[in-house]
Translation initiation factor 1A (Halobacterium bonnevillei), 95 residues
Amino acid sequence: MSDDDGGRKNLRMPDEDEVFAEVTDMLGANRVRVRCADGKERTARIPGRMQKRIWIREDDVVLVEPWDWQDEKADVVWRYEKSEADQLREEGHIE
């Protein structure tokens, strides 16, 4: 019996203040440019707890939390693996 049966994985979904986004550009200094599912382009910050453990590249699908006080900025809270991003696209959560 194999674990990779092509079945659906339970993925982390956005909380009420989080949105899906796709990384469009690497800006350096732990920052990336993202295109969010709500149609806005934002500069997102990669927090210290993710910097060395999770590598984020262009075209990755991430979950961001926009800042309350500055809407053009956000924090990256999660990165999806390629297979997880494909599943999100198939289920219609992202374009």
Remarks:
- The first strand starts at residue 19 and ends at 28.
